[in-house]
Amino acid sequence: MEQHKGVAKFENELKAIESEDIRAFAHNAIVASPPSFWKDKELVAYTKKVFKVVKELLDHDKVKSPIKDVILTGVLLSDVALNELSDRFKHLHPLAAAKILEPVSKDLHKALWEGITRIIEAHEGENTPSKLLEPKPGTPEHLVSLAHRLVKNEAIDVKIEE
């Protein structure tokens, strides 16, 4: 059977998720995600870069699973809804992601799902759609938002395998 094209694009990232339950969820989430996510080469590259930065930081600090896997999965799925919204509503994509992914979250422990959605909802940092979702310094959400900011910075070049 042929591998799903979205899953194939994120094969290395999925392999980095140690917990079988969380990896299975991430796999199913990519399958359930709109093709506009995984067919967008720039968005795929951007996602891979943020994933790499966050993984490097977590590895350096020796963060273990399942916390590490929740954070990485949140990073991987942060922008699944980005291309599904018109330009006028793109800023709401962190909130729309949960609606897209919720149907595949049923087999995931509720606390893990909530952790992943917190990462997704807060990944835009101070640009998140709601002040209530802004990540607090020192939290995993803040780490992820900083990684997004670093990858967006033109002075920093994150290399990925393509």
Counting H and I runs of at least 4 residues, what is the number of helices? 9
Question: What's the level 1 CATH class?
Answer: Mainly Alpha
**CATH topology (level 3) name:** Hypothetical protein af1432
The assigned CATH architecture is Orthogonal Bundle
- Provide the succession of SSEs: HHHHHHHHH
Q: Count of DSSP E strands?
A: 0
Quickly count the domains. Answer: 1
**Mean pLDDT over all positions:** 94
- Describe the main β-sheet briefly: none
Given the C-alpha coordinates, what overall shape results? globular
| Helix/strand class | mainly alpha
Unreliable runs: none
State which percent range the strand residues make up: under 5%
Helix proportion range: 55-70%
End-to-end Cα distance, whole Å, is 23 Å
User: How large is the radius of gyration?
Assistant: 14 Å
Output the keywords:
9 helices, single chain, Hypothetical protein af1432, 162 residues
Structure commentary:
The chain is mostly helical and 162 residues long. It has one domain: Hypothetical protein af1432. The protein contains nine helices and no strands. The protein is globular and about 40 Å long. It starts with a helix and ends in a 10-residue tail after the last helix. 39% of the residues are buried.
